[in-house]
Amino acid sequence: MTTRALSRPEAPVRAWRPRQGWGSAIFDAANAAVLLALCFITFYPFYYVLIASLSDPVALMANRGFMLLPRGFSLEAFHRVWDNPMVRSGFFNTLVIVVGGTALNLVLTCCGAYALSRRRLPLEKAFMMFIVFTMFFSGGLVPNYLLVRDLGLLNSRWAIVLPFAVSAWNLIILRAAFNAVPKDYEEAARIDGAGDFTILWRVYVPLCMPSIAVVGLFYAVSHWNGYFYSMIYLSDRDLFPIQLVLREILVSGSTDSMMTGEAVGREALSNTIKYATVVVATIPVLAVYPFLQRWFVKGVLTGGIKE
Amino acid sequence: MKRVLFLTLSLVTLTAAAAPAPEPIALPIVRQPLHLTWFANFNGKAAVSLKSYGEQSAYHVLAERTGITVDFRHPPLGAERERFNLLLVSGNYPDVIEADWFGYPGGSSKALKDGVVIPLNDLIRRYAPNLQALLDRHPEVYRQISTDDGTIYAFPMLRIDPQVRSVWGPQVRRDWLDKLGLRQPSTIDDWYRVLTAFRTRDPNGNGRADEIPFSALTIPGEKTVPGLPPPLWVFLGGFGLAPEFYRCGTRVCYSPAQPAYRDFLATMRKWYREGLLDPDYLAQTERQFDAKMTNGLVGAYAGYNGSGLARFTAMNRARFPGFKLVATPYPLGPGGKRYVTWPEAGQEYMGVGAAITPANRHPVETVKFLDYGYSEAGGLALSFGREGVSYTMVNGAPRYTDRVLKNPKLSVAEAIFAHARPQQGPLVQDVRYLRQFYSMPEQLDAVRTWSDASTELLLPPLEVASADARKFNAVMSDMKIYVAEMTTRFITGREPLEHFDAYRRKLDQAGLPFAVAAMQRALDRYDSKPARPAGEQP
């Protein structure tokens, strides 16, 4: 060993070659290129919206083709978005719906998943059939509308939270997670005198936190992105969530452009305002993702029991 | 002549000429405050500063005078269609529904039959002196706002002055004309010379032949005509044609099947071949078109006064010194006449009106309230808001205050909508609002230029009889596809023009005679309607 190390200067100089051989290196390079291209394709639309929102409105309109940097620079669109009272009330409403709605979703989904994961539940198969059925068939918009109307929920936030309190898909995910918890935990808890509520909230929920976090994220993102049912059920503009406000801003420019008689250059702004609103409505949810990462840890179950 | 007629109208006097004199409205209409619920589409300009039209000065003024307040229910912007349909299925109607009744499934008469709205003839005769006087004066308005059997179902939004209907038309770069020493094109031949000069003589002076003499764009959501984006409709008039079905004397004709259409196609084909017509004329997005416009490449096109002429002028004035986009007359057609070919310009009524539903428990008071909007005082409030706040009277004419015209935070349209809604709802559009709303001299000039042409080729709004509707729709949907394809092939040179006769024969085989006859029956029913509402309803 030592002699080899000492004799290194005299070792024959060999041409550099990749550790795994040329074929593999070429594959790696091609692989990286393809993946980078894919990254770019996915990332560019976001980036485009960002630089378009920062561009000078008229220069942006005159621009033809590809953009890597903003055309001119203007923060006017962001000023206008921030001045729009609907944007602020929209954020507030979305926050209420995301926090309140997700909390309700999680409580009800946990309860449902727990009950359905119990073997002693009579007609468990039938219940599951009913639930799975709703994943493939729905009553349609009009019956739903009539239902919400008859429940007296029209024009209230409940209309966009209550009918969607449990999603069949998330319920099934959580049921699978609960099923994966060894029965010994439940037996041990029962021997210690715990009832079903205690077992669910003190044993299952902590053990299945990663699954619950994922399901919670699904729910929260769908609340954040949801505009359709707000559009259908809400009339009071004070209740509109941010995505509905965003949609209004995006569509209204085209619907009433024909009658406008603006002589002012403000008309050009409407384009950058659209982009700025998209940026404002997207950034919060992008910013939250990294902080949710820590919930997606595995291995919480290990070591709790001895077989 | 028409203008004189209108001026007398705009100073509406309230004396009813009709024999059974309706009682004049006594204000306030109600002693006890009355709230009306009212479904109406909102507007992006208003949404900037308001939550509902009920907050406008206009409706505050009306409430003070009449005792009736309006509780507006607005669908979110862009969801108007869905919410209107859901309102219909839900069955709990508000007191008033303001909507596009031509867009009602099955037409406006179906809305009456479905019990969504109530017939208004008797109520109008007895309680609506202002609208009644207006109908007496304008028989064509009554024909348009009533169904085939003469029933009035809504208080209409009306555009009686031709100037308020002239919102769209051909536009040309005046600075290019001046630079090349050309005059505004008048005949189709003039157009050919002007566009050729734009193509070959480098009017934008950059040394490159990058000019697009005539460009065209189909704005999504607008009326479409098979194979022809709206700007090309302008030239149909030069051949005595108008888009699709049009009025030829007392008959209905279908322009793509007329012999003159061949001449039109031959001209467009030549223009396309010589690069006078934007090669992207059929399939460009608004963004592509805007980019061409803002880069100063387009010599002429046709579009709106506001979102076209004014918008491009405002954006390009700073970028291109001397930039001047102006309205130009419709081309001279056969017989030395200019024809308006923008279908809406021929209609006083576009289908939008406020109807009363069976759920309304105060129809008489509601009729009086809606009718007040057609009086001089009521119309002023709806179009201009509150005197002393959003307008003042200068020499007997309403003038928006600086709070509206020079608002630091709002554009003129947004500021107007904060106080009033002069271009929507049950009222007669007031040309005095339009003259202030259009703030550029070029815009006022455009209104004059475009309204100075004949609308005789344009059909009134017609409803095909329900007995004909199914077959008519089936025939037309196939025919439109064929016409669109063939028109495009003829213009772009893929199909020899000699095949035009074969193309016409094929239209006949596809059921064109039936479709024309169905439209003819609809027009005959329209023309034979009495000039004013008949007496009692059965």
Structural notes for this entry:
The complex is a heterodimer of chains A (307) and B (538). Chain A has a domain at 89-238: MetI-like (MetI-like fold). Chain A is built from 14 helices and no strands. Chain A has helices spanning 2-6, 22-53, 57-62, 76-83, 85-116, 124-136, 141-150, 168-179, 183-191, 196-207, 209-225, 228-233, 242-255, 266-292. In chain A, helix 2 packs across helix 14 and helix 5 (85-116) crosses helix 13 (242-255). The two termini of chain A are 48 Å apart. Chain B has two domains: 2-162 and 350-443, 3-Layer(aba) Sandwich (D-Maltodextrin-Binding Protein, domain 2), CATH 3.40.190; 167-339 and 464-538, 3-Layer(aba) Sandwich (D-Maltodextrin-Binding Protein, domain 2). Helix content of chain B is 43%, strand content 12%. Chain B contains 24 helices and 13 strands. Chain B has helices at residues 2-10, 44-47, 57-66, 80-90, 108-113, 121-127, 129-137, 139-145, 162-165, 174-180, 188-200, 230-236, 259-273, 286-294, 305-316, 363-372, 376-384, 402-405, 412-419, 431-437, 441-451, 466-492, 500-509, 512-527, and strands at residues 34-39, 68-73, 96-100, 155-158, 168-173, 212-214, 245-248, 251-254, 298-304, 325-327, 349-356, 391-394, 397-400. In chain B, strands 2-1-3-11-4 form a five-stranded mixed sheet. In chain B, strands 6-9-5-10 form a four-stranded mixed sheet. In chain B, strands 7-8 form a two-stranded antiparallel sheet. In chain B, helix 13 (259-273) packs parallel to helix 22 (466-492). Chain B is globular. At the A-B interface, helix 3, helix 7, helix 12, helix 13 and helix 14 of A face helix 2, helix 4, helix 14 and helix 15 of B.
Record the SSE blueprint:
The complex is a heterodimer of chains A (307) and B (538).
Chain A: H1 2-6, H2 22-53, H3 57-62, H4 76-83, H5 85-116, H6 124-136, H7 141-150, H8 168-179, H9 183-191, H10 196-207, H11 209-225, H12 228-233, H13 242-255, H14 266-292
Helix pairs in contact in A: 2-14, 4-14, 5-8, 5-11, 5-13, 8-11, 13-14
Chain B: H1 2-10, E1 34-39, H2 44-47, H3 57-66, E2 68-73, H4 80-90, E3 96-100, H5 108-113, H6 121-127, H7 129-137, H8 139-145, E4 155-158, H9 162-165, E5 168-173, H10 174-180, H11 188-200, E6 212-214, H12 230-236, E7 245-248, E8 251-254, H13 259-273, H14 286-294, E9 298-304, H15 305-316, E10 325-327, E11 349-356, H16 363-372, H17 376-384, E12 391-394, E13 397-400, H18 402-405, H19 412-419, H20 431-437, H21 441-451, H22 466-492, H23 500-509, H24 512-527
Helix pairs in contact in B: 3-17, 7-8, 13-22, 15-21, 22-24
